[in-house]
Amino acid sequence: MSSKKTLILNKEQIHQKSKRIAYQIIEDNFDEPAIVLVGIADRGYVFAQRLQKLLQEIAPDKSFELLSVSIEKTKRNLESSTDGDLDIAKNKVVILIDDVLNSGRTLAYGLGVFINIPLKRMRTAVLIDRSHHQFPVFSDYYGLKLSTILKEHVEVVLEEFDHTEDAAYLS
């Protein structure tokens, strides 16, 4: 892997992309009184918290509940845990959120968490979609769609998690 990092999104661009995603979520779910945002730990959850804040500013009359899902990505079987009761998602729209969509494995595992919960609709949101899908999982809402080679790595830095200014890098 190259040690050279190329900035692909700065702090302001990440904020703009996040705001656009929030507006898209509102537009697509205009009639929904409540939406459940599910962030995949760790950076996906931080991104979900940011989206929740933006959504509450845009549509204060709606409810935006937040869940964190931790997934053991290295296992062949789905092993996950949540920070709350999955029943809050029953018969509601659920938005599964992560920072980067690469192969789709993480989001596929995230979808599996809700396989036995009756949902109204499930959508996905990512800050960066790399378009290297090995699983039939695609982003419904994304900030940036980026064509990269498999050897390249996308790193998203979020202030709340990494304690440094927001940025996304390609290396």
Automatic annotation (TrEMBL):
Record keyword Transferase present: yes
Keyword Glycosyltransferase carried by entry: yes
InterPro entries noted in UniProt: PRTase-like, PRTase_dom, PyrR_bifunctional
One example GO MF annotation: glycosyltransferase activity
Domain of life of the organism encoding this protein: Bacteria
PANTHER family referenced in this protein's UniProt entry, alphabetically: BIFUNCTIONAL PROTEIN PYRR (PTHR11608)
Name of this protein: Phosphoribosyltransferase domain-containing protein
Organism of origin: Sphingobacterium kyonggiense
